[in-house]
Structure formats: C-alpha cells, structure tokens
Amino acid sequence: MKRVLASDGIQADAAEKLKSLGYEVVQQFYEPEELAKQVAEYDVLVVRSATKVRQPIIDAAKAAGRLKLVIRGGVGVDNIDVAYAEENGIAVRNTPRASSASVAELALGHMFAMARYIAIANVTMKNGEWNKKKYEGIELGGKTLGLIGMGRISQELAKRACALGMKIIYTDVMEIKGLPAEYTCMSRDEVLKNADFVSLHIPMPADKKPVIGAAELALMKPTAFIVNTARGGLVCEDALCDALDNGALAGAALDVYAEEPAKNERVLKHPKISLTPHIGGSTKEAQGRIGEEIVDIITKFFA
Known about the structure:
Elements: E1 3-6, H1 12-20, E2 24-27, H2 32-38, E3 44-47, H3 55-64, E4 69-72, H4 82-87, E5 91-94, H5 100-115, H6 118-126, E6 144-148, H7 152-163, E7 167-171, E8 184-185, H8 188-194, E9 197-200, H9 214-219, E10 225-228, H10 237-245, E11 251-254, H11 265-268, E12 273-275, H12 284-301
Parallel strand pairs: 1-2, 1-3, 3-4, 4-5, 6-7, 6-9, 7-8, 9-10, 10-11, 11-12
Helix pairs in contact: 1-12, 2-3, 5-7
C-alpha cells in the first residue's frame, strides 16, 4: 500500500478519495528534524506553505529510498528545493490552476479596500466614529493596473480589472502569448511609474532579496497603491512603511509577509496598510480544486 503524508493537512474529500483508491493517508505536521526521520516511511509527501522541504529532508528520503513524489498544494514551490529533489530521483509537482481565481479575487478585494477605506472605516464605525468626510475614496474604473509577473493569477486579476474599466499594463521575464491586444507590456520600472495600482505575482528570487525596495517604491506615483499576495519578502516591509510615512505612496495591501505569522509591528499597526493573514487560496472552491488536483497527480504518477 502506498503511503501519503500530508504534513500541512489535506482537503477531507481528497483524503477520502485517496483512501478509497487504496492509499493510506496520514495528516501530521512534523518539525524539520523529525520530518527527516518520518519521510523514510512514505511514498508521497504533500505540503502547503508551512512545511519546508530542504536538502536534509531530501537526503534522508533518498537514503531510505521510498519517497518518490513531493506535491505542493498551491501555486509556487519556493518552499521545496526542487532541483535537488529531482536530481535525487524525487519528482516535484504543484497545483497551479486551483487557487488562481481565489488569489486574484483577494488582490482585487484589497484594491477596493484601499480605494474606499473599507477596513479602517469598519473599525472606526465600531468605535462609534462617523468619519463620512474623512473617507473620500477613488474609483477603480479608469485607473491603470500594473502587474509584476503575468502568470495565471495575474491573468485572472486582469480579466476582473478589465470588467471594471481598468487599463492593464504588465511586465514579465518571459514572452506571454495569447493575451488581449489591449494589455501593454513594459519594463518593470515603467510599470511602477505608470500604474495607479501595482500587484505582484512572481516567485521569490533565488537570492531571497526584495524585488521592491526603496528605489522601486520611489518610482511609483504618490497616489498609487501596491498589493502583494504572492510571496512574503518580495516587498521590503520597512521601505514600504517609510514610503507610506513620507507620503510617497498612498497605500499598500499585504497577504504575505517576510516572517509568518507576521510580527513586524510597523506593518501590523500601519493605518495605510490593508492586511490579511495569508489567505489568498483560502476559499472553499480553491481548497476543493487543490484536493482534486492532488488526487489526480498522485493517481497518475503511480498508474
């Protein structure tokens, strides 16, 4: 019997489906040192964001000779040493299609929250304040959305933004074919200079350094907003707070953080930052699709 370890959990329907197909499914989180011991007993390791599959774990799995497949239930594979795993005979897969719409909708939700002061107005109302004149916002229609990276999530966000009457500009390291003719490709700096809203949808670079720091933020309009639902650390948090404090940027929204759970007090308490706790893919629909993709990947891999 093939054994599956879901170290960050797995959708209930997916677990039951795998069991019905003859797989044993264990849902248990292990710290890295203990996980290195446990992987010897499994054929498949399924992770989300919490579990990091680094070289020591891969070395332990290779030595045992049983683990054949690692699946990241989500879009990116930053928390897995992919090349090293595959060099050592362990396949790596992810579920890139499952949560694209959910992340895109969260990014759009943050854009509305910033443009119309929804989060802060909700808090002040509950504190007994009536700040009707204080919260004059802006419309998204007619504004320019700049996308850093033009993969599946960006394309889902662009479709929704277009429906609101937004103009789409983007940058990507690759040539993206099949996009609507009205989307305009630019350099990253030009996107930053021209966008009213900037949304990031790229992986973390190999050097782990922020892609958006003080110099990049300085290129943006003082009336602009930035959204990061992609990877914690892509935006330098202190540089972001500085830009907001200095009036060089109108607002920001974060779903991901350099450290999670988030602990940066400047970020957590900043009145111009809209915050969510890494919930981009946390919808019932996305979780169901992730589970379905995981089952499909496993069954096809061992067919």
